Amino acid sequence: MFQVQKASNELDVVQKRAASGNPPVFSAQGEDDAVSLEETVLNDIQETVYQWDVPTGALTWGRNAGEIFGAEIVDTICTGKDFDALIDADALTNRHQTVCNSIGVDYGNGVPFEVEYRLRLPGTDGDKMVWVQDRGRWFADSGGRPVVARGALRIIDPFGAQTLSLSTLPDQMIALASRAQFLDMLESMLLVAQHYKSLFALAIVSIDNLQIAGDVYGPTAIDKVARDVLLRLRGVLRSSDLVGQLADGQIGVIFKISDSSEAAFAAGRIIDAVSLKPIETGQGPLVPMVSVGAVIVPTHAATVRTAVETAGAALDYARRNGPGHFAVHSPDYDTVATRMTDMRIADDLIFAINERRLVVARQPVLVADGNTIAFYECLVRMEREDGSLLALGDAIRVAEMLGLVRMIDFRVMELVIKALQDDPDIILSFNVSVETATDQEWLIAFEAALAQNPGFANRLIVEMTETALIRNIDRIRSFVARLRELGCRVAIDDFGAGYTSFRNLKLLQVDMVKIDGSFIRNLVSSSEDEVFVRTLLELARNFNLESVAEMVEDERTAEKLRTMGVTYLQGFHLGMPVRSPGGESVPPLIREA
Question: Which CATH superfamily is 176-331 part of?
């Protein structure tokens, strides 16, 4: 039977400090009946106990450790470093990382932890892989640093686990926490930082070409790329750093820092490590393209919500410079004021969604040659307590930034379907965000609604903005194709703002383009705008696409567009947004969306 090592003097001090709340020190003496029963039970459930002195690394095992792992193995693992050497390289979490993450404050009773990982146990017939469950408590010194951990190690699924590989492991087995778990860790880390007046950084790592991997190589490539990126990320992170999934293709990272320069260095290091070389997907190679946005907490973010929002804003800024860039939030008066305004807008928007006070106003789109109504565009509005309608304005931008736009799109879909049910002759267009266009849940719900209402598809036009399309064109192609298969028409909104190429128009196979109003507003007085609009209309005709001129605000502009051959006209001069045909006019959006 393996004998317990003597604990260090420093460990004795720690034990005395928290003796009242701590488990007793393990002893090799006292072979009485109670101990024998305890050992029998532990052997039966393949579990042993340990004590780890973190500063010195000394690892003390329970009496039955040799029965569980083999005496010849246990004899070689007398320190934490010895034990770490047995952990499978593909197991991206372990006891050392979990304890040294230091999430939580030790108020005298220790901080609980639990983790699962694989061990590679050497044997005469080759190495044996086993999964272990490791749970216990760690205790801290006066500075909050872990100094001792006590726990139990139990073998779980010792046979089936031998056949597992990284590609088949569930996410929890490779230490990628869910969004909810990660936010819980972020909140705990924030409490620790506020308690000890320390700093850490929250970074959001975005794999910008993850969906492209699926479009080119198939859905299995997405999983392969995501897992390999996580492996590379883990390779440059410290044992105290935390990772979790924030959204599709976005990984959150929490790491301790001393100042903003250290955060910038870490962000750059992440990009270099992840994009170092191609990933072999099994169907072909792909170099992961990543962007990173970070914020220093709690200096620039005192709450979990603010931290996520601010890091997200930094990520958006980094993305505008293209893949491979990073940005660390640097506040000034204007950005702080803007963020506070955005938070108030987000609160109002969430309240309106929950109270079902989002409605759609309809603006007529007229046939240029004849001025008859071809269809109505649905514009999102917020209903106030007095029944009046308010344009969302900046709320659309905030919703896109915070990921709330999908909730809006689901509500708009419900309202559009209801409007088609109420009026069998009406034709409607409505805008869908790129986030929603890549959301399978929305598409499934949309297909179900059309299945329950035969004939509705050919009365619908789905619009997506050009700038969003060209940033995600490979991800949107299949979405557009599916909409057209269902019988819907598809339009590019704000056409011209993103300068879509011939290639992109050919790839997307849309039915209609809506020329951005910024080129229409000064059409009569600006020769440059006239040349550009003529070019866009010619481009549309070459692809047999219908065209809509937006923001037509006077008859001279309308007449000039008719002579240029535009298919449809839309603007305040021709019809204001109304809650329903014949109803109350309502405020327009500055940017119709």
Answer: Reverse transcriptase/Diguanylate cyclase domain (3.30.70.270)
